[in-house]
Amino acid sequence: MNITLTRTGDAAVIAVQGRVDTLSAPTVEQKLTQWLDEGETRMILDLSELEYISSAGLRTVLVIGKKAKANGGSLCCCALRGMVRKVFDVSGFSLVLPVYNTVDEALAAG
Amino acid sequence: MTLFRGLTGKVMLLVLATGLVSGLLLAHSYLFSRGIILSSAEDQTRDRAEDLASQVEGELSAIADIAHTCAPFVERSGSDKAALLNLLRTLVERNKHIFGSGACFEPYAFETDSRAFCPYFHKRDESVEYVQLGNDNYNYFDKEFYREPKKLKRPYWSEPYYDEGGGDVMMTTYSYPLFAKSRDGSPGKFSGVLTADVSVQWLTRHLASFSVFNTGYCFLVSGRGTFLVHPKGSIDDTSIFTLAQRMGKPRIEDVGRRMLDEASGFADIGTLLSDRESFLAFARIPSTGWSLGIVVPRDEILAPLTGLYKKQVGIATLIVIGLLALTLVLAASITGPLRRMVAVTARVAHGDLDVDLTDIRSHDEVGNLARAFQSMTISLKKYIRDLMEMTGAKQRMESELEISAQIQRSMLPSRFPAFPERNDFDIYAVMEPAKMVGGDFYQFFLIDEDHLCLAVGDVADKGVPASLFMAVTTFLIRVAAGQGASPDQILSLVNRQLCLENDTCTFVTIFCAILDLRTGELRYSNAGHDAPLVLGPAKDVMPLPIPPGPAAGLVDSPTYRTETTVLESNAILFAYTDGLTDALNEKQEPYSDERLVHLLNSLDSRDVESVVKSVKEDVARFCGGTEQFDDLTVLAVRFGGTERIQ
């Protein structure tokens, strides 16, 4: 698992790569929380290179999304593919969080 | 050398080495100074010998002067015997250095009637005695004191001799030749000698009164080497040459010759004349031709130097001893605490942390070490206490987890066959938690005689919170199903309850179904869960088309829908959680839906237990040694058929 932040305007595009499972979910949560605490408000999760996300990973995204909202910010996901898209669809996550096809779409939507 | 292995020994060795170096420097300096002093010893002793010789010369020439002064009176006295005797007596009485004095004449030179005339006065005890030496027993004409000046026609100091029949002592005699006056004033005929005697005893006493350094002494040899004053240890010998002969030391003879030949000189005579290493310096007494020798012990010359160095060596030794003592004290103040710390370390190593080093109060590095050690043991103690508390807490937690796991397992129906009295359906399920307490669950129960409710779910969390969530969920499902709710209603109820106060954002995916055991009609609804598979009687494996619906706990009022299908006889509904299809092998590849479908396709058996176990074994084989990272749940139910055996 690898997570990197790139600033684009007022938005933080966060690329999550590899697998987010029970073991790596806490790392993701800690990183995202840190960036939130550092003042990031508009967070776009670029999941184009995410191979796998477990339910624990989904819960992490949900927790951060709630926190961002509480801070007056927002969190959205984009560029879902393969198994990740399937998980988002099956679990109904697409109903809870804004999901975009590409990073550009996500940025434009802001 | 174990003695020098310790710190104390090493420092002591250092001090000793320093002492040794200082000692060597001191020795070198001593030898150097000694060389300088010895080279100046020759000048010193020779000067002293010359000085003493000139003193003796003075004394002797005073005596010679007296004889010289008196001689004309004797010469002019004619044959006035009374005047002559008076003069001689006065000479002896008035001059304390003169032992005796006489006037010896040629035959018939003084008195025409006597052939041998020699009046002689000499001291005896406190008085002065008279003796006429011109007698048959005392033939003065043959005596040296008469013969030699007569022959030489000049004054003469005799060799020492024992004056038997005269003064009866060892003496030496100064003889002044007398001459009869001729009428024309030219030197007359030898007429006799005027003598002045010096006793050897007096000379010896006189020389003994000279101080020659501290323990040095003088001796006197005549022009022929005869001892006038003996050197110590040579009383038996009359001359320096007999001494050399008796002692068998030819070098003494050499020295003796030098004393007779040279006006003054110096010789390192070693132990020739005494037990102690000595120097000899000598100087001639010109008027007599005698030689005065002084013998000075070498160590006396070196005495000031030796004294100085004895003091220095003493001081150096004291300093070294003092330093050693100081070293011992200092080293003890260092090694004492160190030894205690070594002992304490051994105790700590054996687990005894109750050490007290607070009495080591020194403010040096050792003190710092002791304090650091003390605080280390305190930290260690605290750490061990914390660790024990933590271990205790962990053990408690683990036992609690174990209990939770037991409770959780007890909540999942786990006795199989679950309905041994029923042959119209079979059901089998397993749940293998990744951690002690998992978030997966399955549930099945008969709502009534003809309806079987079943559910498979996955709580998006692990451990105790997940199991609590799970407990709530299964409870809600039981309650709702018991009240006759449809699957979508059941999920809506569960969702509503989970959305209340869900701060942790935990959610649950659930597949929930109610099977009509009379008809095979399966009504089901889904909350974000993977679609179950249906194994048809003819080896066809198909995923159940599932209606959309979010996981429970995500959104407040989602729309769940109930779908309906009919299971054929002997068809198996195979429900699972993603722990099955997402299980990874060593290459990080997931087990995948495809592999699962392929496996199920290949199975001949329609026995639910063997189907579930085959799947489990296949997954285990696929994963190899990889650790299971997610809960794994499988539930299989076989519908027996519409023609129920009553």
Description:
- Chain A is of the alpha/beta class.
- Chain A has helices spanning 25-37, 55-70, 82-91, 93-96, 103-109, and strands at 2-8, 11-20, 42-46, 50-53, 74-78, 99-100.
- Chain A is globular, with a radius of gyration of 12 Å.
- The mean pLDDT of chain A is 89.
- Helices cover 44% and strands 21% of the residues of chain B.
- Chain B has helices at 7-76, 81-94, 144-152, 200-208, 240-247, 250-261, 298-301, 303-349, 365-411, 463-482, 487-499, 578-581, 592-602, 608-623, and strands spanning 100-105, 119-124, 127-132, 156-157, 161-162, 170-179, 190-199, 217-221, 227-229, 264-270, 278-285, 290-297, 425-432, 440-448, 451-459, 508-516, 521-527, 533-535, 541-543, 563-566, 572-576, 632-639.
- In chain B, strands 1, 2, 3, 4, 5, 6 and 7 form a seven-stranded antiparallel β-sheet that branches. A five-stranded antiparallel β-sheet of chain B has the order 9-8-12-11-10, with helices on both faces. In chain B, strands 13-22-21-18-19 form a five-stranded antiparallel β-sheet.
- In chain B, a hairpin with a 2-residue loop joins strand 14 and strand 15.
- At the A-B interface, helix 2, helix 3 and helix 4 of A face loops of B.
